[in-house]
Write a structure and sequence with these properties.
Strands 1, 2, 3, 4 and 6 form a five-stranded antiparallel sheet that branches. The protein has a four-stranded mixed sheet with strand order 5-10-9-7, covered by helices on one side. The chain is α+β, with helices and mostly antiparallel strands. Strand 3 and strand 4 form a beta hairpin. It has four domains: 118 residues, no CATH class; 112 residues, Phosphorylase Kinase, domain 1 (2-Layer Sandwich); 195 residues, no CATH class; 71 residues. The protein is built from 21 helices and eleven strands.
Length: 553
């Protein structure tokens, strides 16, 4: 009953927006010219969409925050509208929060903490933070909201069922990208709801940056940390977007803070491959000596070496105007579906090259946000998908430039980035490229493997032992195609029989309501048969999910 009510609530609130987006493409959903909309109409619709998502609760607020950096899925002004959406969830009553803490620590709060404030310092979708005192030191206690796991699991399950039909009825790169976002969220949110993982992420960051005095993370009190409770030191500092008075008084230098922040995220992304995945001003504090404190380590991103190499490869190919090089690295990064032909994608890659060339040759200060917007518009127009690593890279770039512009309207983003990258060039090249000895060894090993494979192929051909095998994926695809055709045939037969029986019954009883109902049902079946595509796409519900309803660990 709860599932049904929630499903109806979600569909009732979001279906009008789906229909409106479809009519933007074709006035009558499946045919007709695009409906005409003014910029003001799009802005009003974007604001309504943001309000609806906020009203649907924690799951959809978190999803909206992920979508706010996915210009390959949503265009402006919808990106800006959902980007402004923050966690607007009222705090849970203190007695429920206390019950969670006591269940996890298996002791009354009074026996653990010297003091515990019921009024939260912050309340977000997944948890809320309370100030406390333990072992003679001030701490913050992060507590997972009661019942939030079941709520999110139910919403994710409903989302996958909805996406299944979207993938069948409207197969395009926007729907596939949306499916990937929700699949990624379903896995990532599970980690975010286990505070032991967050504690491990903080410990890893503190070890990696132990010798870097520009940045730190709060110390975790492991003795009091559990799956739903995380106890950390109380960090004092100023939010990174509220440093105007510090810069005016000379206590801090603008360049020092911006270069420190950029260097830290560049190192995390491209050198260490371990990145803080929730960059926003609320998670970045600055101490009086300029040290940056990075908070909220529930979401992190592992960037493998080959991804870092491909990102550098794309940058180098763009620098030398190598169109084929850009396309090769885009395929390697998963930005292009294997079903898309190389010829079709060349125009998209050429457009990206033109955008970068304009940025390099412009006479005014180049704004990174303008370049990003033009590039992401290309992703929205062409069948391209943003890899999650690039999504967080772009989010971080937008954050840094937005902060810099708030303090200095004359800030030149591209010149600043070039200078920071030049300062870290040796580290980037050392971590994203193999050393000469390693390259030589890899080349020899690959050459030996190729020679062995060729020799084995020739030997098998001489013995007439060569066999052609079909990949299981191809067989499964054919099976799905045949099953779909069988279902279409059965639906067609059933629709015809329904129409025939309805006509016979009408002649017997002369009931117009019966005739209308029967012919309407037959028409619905024929429409389903007509618009189900000839190929059945993969069911998104079959992909690995990070969390399921009723699951407990």
């Amino acid at each position: 009953m709860k599932r049904t009510a929630r499903t109806v609530s979600v569909l009732t609130r979001l279906t009008p927006f789906l229909v409106a987006f479809l009519r933007d493409r074709r006035s009558w959903i499946v045919f007709g010219s695009p409906a005409r909309r003014t910029a003001a109409q799009h802005r009003r619709r974007a604001d309504r969409l943001s309000d609806r998502l906020a009203g649907l609760g924690p799951t959809f607020i978190k999803l909206a925050q992920l979508l706010s950096s996915r210009a390959d899925i949503l265009p402006e002004p919808y990106l800006s509208a959902v980007g402004r959406l923050q966690d607007r969830v009222p705090p849970d009553p203190s007695h429920r929060i206390r019950r969670v803490v006591e269940q996890e620590l298996e002791l009354p709060i009074a026996e653990v903490f010297e003091s515990f404030e019921d009024e939260p310092l912050a309340a977000a979708s997944l948890g809320q933070v309370h100030r406390a005192r333990v072992d003679g030191r001030d701490v913050v206690v992060k507590v997972l909201r009661p019942d939030v796991e079941d709520s999110i699991a139910l919403d994710i399950d409903i989302s996958f069922r909805f996406l299944f039909w979207l993938n069948i009825l409207f197969p395009n790169h926007h729907v596939r990208a949306l499916t990937n976002v929700i699949r990624e969220f379903s896995v990532r949110v599970r980690d975010e709801m286990d505070f032991r993982r967050e504690a491990a992420n903080i410990d890893r960051f503190r070890r990696v940056f132990a010798n870097d005095r520009r940045v730190r993370a709060p110390e975790v009190l492991e003795k009091y940390t559990r799956r739903r409770v995380l106890v950390m030191e109380m960090c004092e500092g100023t939010k990174i977007d509220q440093l105007e008075s510090h810069f005016r008084s000379g206590r801090l230098r603008f360049a020092q803070v911006m270069e420190g922040l950029t260097s830290v995220y560049l190192r995390m992304m491209m050198v260490d491959g371990f990145m803080h995945a929730d960059p926003h001003p609320g998670n970045l504090l600055v101490e009086d000596d300029g040290t940056i404190i990075v908070l909220d380590w529930g979401a992190v991103l592992e960037v493998p070496r080959w991804t870092r190499e491909s990102i550098v490869g794309v940058a180098l190919a763009l620098g030398r105007d190598d169109l084929d090089g850009v396309i090769n690295e885009m395929y390697r990064l998963g930005m292009i579906s294997p079903d898309v032909s190389r010829g079709e994608i060349r125009e998209a890659a050429a457009e990206i090259l033109r955008i970068v060339e304009r940025a390099k040759t412009t006479n005014r200060q180049t704004i990174i946000e303008d370049v990003m917007r033009d590039v992401l518009d290309t992703f929205y127009t062409w069948p391209l998908m943003l890899p999650q690593e690039l999504v967080y890279f772009l989010r971080t770039s937008a954050l840094i430039e937005g902060l810099a512009f708030s303090y200095d309207p004359r800030f030149d983003g591209l010149a600043f980035i070039r200078r920071v990258v030049a300062d870290h060039r040796s580290d980037l090249l050392r971590t994203t490229r193999q050393q000469p000895v390693q390259m030589a060894r890899s080349f020899v090993e690959e050459s030996q493997s190729v020679v062995r494979s060729v020799r084995d192929l020739v030997t098998r051909a001489e013995r007439e032992e060569l066999r052609v095998r079909i990949h299981p994926r191809d067989i499964q695809s054919q099976e799905r195609f045949l099953h779909l055709q069988a279902r279409r045939l059965l639906l067609s037969v059933f629709a015809s029989v329904t129409a025939l029986i309805t006509a016979i019954l009408f002649l017997a009883v002369r009931n117009w309501w019966l005739l209308g109902f029967g012919l309407g049902a037959a028409l619905v079946l024929f429409v389903i048969v007509l618009f189900i595509p000839t190929h059945l796409l993969a069911n998104p519900m079959r992909h690995a999910r990070g969390i399921r309803p009723g699951e407990r660990r």
